[in-house]
Amino acid sequence: MSADYLLAMWDLKCLWTNEVKEKEALKLEPALCRDIGIIVSADYLLEIWDLKCLWTNESAVYRSWENVKFNACYYSIIGAGVIGSCTAYYQSQNDNVEITVIEKTQVACASSGKAGGFLWSEGDGDFSRASFRLHRELAQSLNGKERYGYRAMTTYSVTVSNTAQNNGTNDTVPPWLYQEKVVYCDELGTQKDTAQVHPKLFTQTILDEAIATGKTKVKIGHGVTELIYSSQDPTLVTGVLLDDGTTIDGDRVIICMGPWSGQFALGNKALSSAVHYLPVNATRAHSIVLKVDDDAPIGAHALFTEIKDNDGKMQHPEIYPRPNGTVYICGEQDVSEPLPKSADQVKMDPAAIDTLCHLAKEFSLHLDASQDHLVTQQACYLPNSRDQNPLIGKHPAYKHLYISTGHSVWGILLGPISGLIMTDLLLNTSTNRVPQSCLTVLSSSVRFK
Ligand SMILES: Cc1cc2nc3c(=O)[nH]c(=O)nc-3n(C[C@H](O)[C@H](O)[C@H](O)COP(=O)(O)OP(=O)(O)OC[C@H]3O[C@@H](n4cnc5c(N)ncnc54)[C@H](O)[C@@H]3O)c2cc1C
Questions:
Q1: What DSSP line would sit under 240-267, residue for residue?
Q2: Which ligand 1 atom is at minimum distance from the Cα of 259?
Q3: What is the dotted CATH code of the domain comprising 154-190+281-382?
């Protein structure tokens, strides 16, 4: 939003409310600045505006004013994972926004493209129930079934043993598993409360939809190296600096960098204020994708499992058959390899892939991990906050800086609600689709330090 645009709106509002005295008072400062040749920043005007609204306490006027276009604003979103993409999507459904999503590597190149894509309405309490509903709405309106493999699933907890034998009479065991090896099987979720998406396709689709509004641009291939701060106020963020030296101004900057959020220095180095970091750490996890034969009778059954590996260690692979004739399997988390500088430098541990391939065939005749069937082997990093709940809110120490990260094992599920919450915060609106109780907890300022 340019300062001129804001000044024009300002004039309009003053005329509209017919507040002659206020008009004079309010116009004085910008006019003065113009006369003496100072460039008035949009941020500066916004702050005066906020003060004015507080001062006159005209909430009705303020609301109407918002509807007239007050929120025209430039937003810079850092990171095109599921969180950055959902934020861009919900933000782009509003008028007078211009959004730039800045992605260092590729859209959904990290965990947002390599996750299971499992959705569980009870995954994270009220918060996940709200996001599960949003996923269902999105799948209906965007044809999620065709575009990103959205489908309802039945979910089981399954324990498999090579030594104990069951008598094969448990009729809840999905028929494509080795019946005699399943020593425990319980239904965890039904098609009402568990579902799945292909996470990469979901992220790409939602970002494409944001772009299609004409309000979102995506800049790929250059990472943000630092934030830019106002020269008058070192706590006021005014844009971002990219690794090719270009700058992008932003009225608001939103960090959606997943595990990299915790490596990103906050604080104006030039003014030697203390540099600090968000409390987000990274853990790695491996996964494989197997192609199954066309006639394999594998249903829409998500499995949370328990099984001993060759060394007698308990493993808990999660198994998600996908509607495109593949099965996704992910394994244990580890911290043996620190997070690299970018997603294209992530290293895999071949032993972790071997373990998954070996375990796969213990569950079913149809889970063949031989070379012909192993279509993907990969690793990626989870973004973890201290309490495993996401950090979503306005940064307590920096003006115009917003954070949405730390979604740990539920980022695909929580992407939509996180995008909606951030949009509410940025536009200063409130939708009844966001449980306020959760929001108060997630945005608590102590959690950002
Ligand atoms: C094995 C595994 C399975 C999972 N399964 C599920 C599941 O079934 N269901 C579920 O809900 N969740 C699941 N998750 C969790 C989910 O994948 C994550 O919580 C989610 O993807 C995090 O999204 P994000 O957008 O915050 O981060 P990311 O996907 O990591 O995206 C961050 C983006 O920021 C970019 N970036 C980083 N630094 C910069 C920079 N300086 N400038 C510009 N861009 C930058 C990166 O390149 C990246 O694209 C799983 C995770 C793992 C590891």
A1: EEETTS-EEE-SEEEE--GGGGGGS-BS
A2: 30
A3: 3.30.9.10
Looking at the chain, how many residues does it have? 449
104, 223 contact by CB (below 8 A): yes
Give the separation between CA 111 and CA 86, rounded to whole angstroms: 15
Counting beta carbons within 10 angstroms of the beta carbon of residue 213, is it exposed (0 to 12), middle (13 to 18) or buried (19 or more)? Answer: middle
The domain covering 74-110+200-280+387-448 belongs, at the CATH homologous superfamily level, to FAD/NAD(P)-binding domain (3.50.50.60)
Where do we find the tokens 């959705």?
A: 119
Instruction: In whole angstroms, give the CA distance from residue 87 to residue 415.
Output: 8
Closest of 231, 273, 223 to residue 248, by C-alpha: 223
Q: Which two tokens stand for residue 9?
A: 């709106």
Of 118, 131, 329, 409, best ligand 1 pocket probe by most atoms within 8 Å of the beta carbon: 409
What does the pLDDT look like over 259-283, one tens digit per residue? 999 999 999 776 656 788 999 999 9
- Residues 20-54 have pLDDT tens digits of 444 444 444 443 333 333 334 445 555 555 545 54
Average of per-residue pLDDT values in the chain:
86
The three-state (H, E, C) secondary structure of 56-96, written as one string = HCCHHHHHHHHHHHHCCEEEEEECCCHHHHHHHHHHCCCCC
